[in-house]
Amino acid sequence: MIQVKDLKKQYKEAVVLDVPSLEIPKSECFGLVGNNGAGKTTLFRIMLDLVRATTGNVTIDEEDVSKSEAWKSVTGAFLDEHMLLAYLTPDEYFETLRKIYGMSEADLQNHLAKFTDLFNEEIIGKKKYIRDLSKGNLKKVGIAAALMGSPQYVFLDEPFENLDPSSQIRLKKLVLQEKENSQVTFMISSHDLNHVTEICDRIVLLEKGKIINDLREKSAMMSELEAYFTG
Ligand SMILES: Nc1ncnc2c1ncn2[C@@H]1O[C@H](COP(=O)(O)OP(=O)(O)OP(=O)(O)O)[C@@H](O)[C@H]1O
């Protein structure tokens, strides 16, 4: 479970995040939505100890992410391309991660096989450096990397952005499969209301750093979000 307690992030006088309490149980597909600047990326960055909270804390399986390392072995994430090694090819990158995660070559092949459709013959064996990939293909590499090492919690920031429509559909299928087969807890921020309502069990709406709605009723999610965003 991921637990957020009394969390605040402040830059000078501006409070950009203020979440008194939030619990994300295991195996939930958790969607995070909100307008630009609402605090989605900041929340994910604090949850991954990439940014320190001003007050409060986040625990993953009861370990404070800012104080322990244990959560790292069960967590995968792709927030942006800075998390990749741009001077490697995707093959070299996956091979490097394979060694870090102690996976066998067969494990890696089995893992990458799940991405065959999403990769669409543009990622593996192409001898193209990550720095030269299109934004959509960069995202695919990052998502495949985030799911390596059998993580129980996977954070994806705007996973559908820059993907072509076929890839968006393939990614949705993949997320649902991983959820079904491995009970992965997905944390997904997105501006795409259709995709996020389709795959998530729950959607939290952030406005100016505060949770203003926590939607769990699948049938009502889309209409509630549309009403909010059309204002
Ligand atoms: N290093 C920083 N210094 C000052 N303010 C910051 C910093 N990082 C983020 N912010 C501010 O925090 C607020 C939340 O930003 P954040 O990137 O988390 O929003 P977001 O919901 O992810 O937005 P978007 O949908 O545009 O990606 C914004 O007002 C942003 O300007």
Outline the structure in words:
Helices cover 36% and strands 26% of the residues. The protein has helices at residues 40-47, 90-101, 105-113, 116-119, 135-146, 165-182, 193-199, 218-230; strands at residues 2-11, 14-24, 29-33, 55-60, 63-64, 75-78, 153-157, 185-189, 202-207, 210-215. The chain has a six-stranded mixed β-sheet with strand order 6-7-8-3-9-10, with helices on both faces. A four-stranded antiparallel β-sheet has the order 2-1-4-5, covered by helices on one side. α7 (193-199) packs antiparallel against α8 (218-230). The radius of gyration is 17 Å and the shape is globular. The chain is α/β, with parallel strands linked by helices and 231 residues long. The chain has a domain at 1-74 and 186-230: Rossmann fold (3-Layer(aba) Sandwich), CATH 3.40.50.300.
Could you tell me the CATH topology label of the domain at 1-74 and 186-230: Rossmann fold
Proper CATH architecture of the domain at 1-74 and 186-230:
3-Layer(aba) Sandwich
**Biggest beta-sheet profile:** 6 strands, mixed
CATH fourth-tier homologous superfamily of the domain at 1-74 and 186-230: P-loop containing nucleotide triphosphate hydrolases
Portion of residues in beta strands equals: 25-35%
Judging from the principal axes of the Cα atoms, what is the shape? globular
Counting copies of identical and different chains, the oligomeric state is: single chain
Question: What are the low-pLDDT stretches, counting only 5+ consecutive residues below 50?
Answer: none
Radius of gyration: 17 Å
Please work out how many helical segments DSSP would assign: 8
**Number of E-state strands:** 10
What CATH first level of the domain at 1-74 and 186-230 would be assigned?
Alpha Beta
Mean pLDDT: 96
The ligands bound in this entry are: adenosine-5'-triphosphate
